[in-house]
Specification:
Elements lengths: L6 E3 L12 E3 L12 H6 L3 H14 L6 H5 L3 H16 L5 H14 L4 H5 L8 H23 L11 H4 L2 H12 L4 H4 L4
Antiparallel strand pairs: 1-2
Helix pairs in contact: 4-5, 4-7, 5-9
Protein name: Constitutive coactivator of peroxisome proliferator-activated receptor gamma
Organism: Nestor notabilis (Kea)
Keywords: Receptor
């Protein structure tokens, strides 16, 4: 009747005593049906590349944004996938948090390694450190989804150094939460 059965899954997280599995209802099938792994992993051609990409986006419930994401550079598109997914899953993220993440990815490419190394922070915000850790852990999820979907992205495009720097994130996080203007936050980018 269109209903999907519940699945028993064990989740490790703070406060879970792991005495019994949680009952989770699977997500609806992705548009076009479940892709064949042999096709995703071994087939070649533009249709397969498109299917790999759309399957990857479906992992993050973003398949409807395929056209917009394909217009971006691969590391930025992957960053946006993770950020959109986090925004959907974590209710405590604020507009200032989102602005800090976006400013990070847009300003990072313009910074040299020397500039990043010379960043000085007066203080470090513990919530900013926590958000950074959640984001970097999310990159692991991106890597796994990329592998499962037949590598629609080059692995190098998903490496943390392509899209993340802890000190720069702290700076953008603090600027955003101080009410800094978007133009200043984005450094004119």
């Amino acid at each position: 009747g269109g209903a999907y059965p519940f699945v028993k899954e064990w989740f490790v997280y703070f406060g879970n005593p792991l005495q019994q599995p949680e009952l989770i209802q699977p997500v609806q099938p992705i548009p076009g049906g479940t892709p064949n792994l042999k096709t995703l992993w071994f087939a070649k051609g533009p249709d397969v590349e498109k299917q790999r990409y759309s399957t990857f986006l479906a992992c993050f419930h973003l398949q409807d944004e395929m056209e917009e994401l394909q217009a971006l550079e691969a590391p930025v598109a992957a960053f946006c996938c993770l950020l959109a997914y986090l925004m959907m899953q974590v209710s405590s993220l604020s507009l200032e948090d989102l602005n800090a993440f976006v400013a990070l990815v847009l300003c990072l490419k313009a910074k040299s390694a020397a500039e990043l190394a010379s960043l000085q922070l007066a203080q470090v915000d513990s919530r900013g450190v926590h958000l950074a850790a959640v984001f970097v852990r999310g990159l692991t999820t991106l890597l796994m989804a990329n592998s499962a979907c037949g590598f629609p992205f080059r692995m190098d495009d998903l490496m943390p150094w392509q899209v993340f720097d802890g000190k720069l994130f702290q700076e953008k996080y603090q600027q955003s939460h101080r009410g800094c203007s978007l133009e200043e936050l984005l450094e004119g980018n």
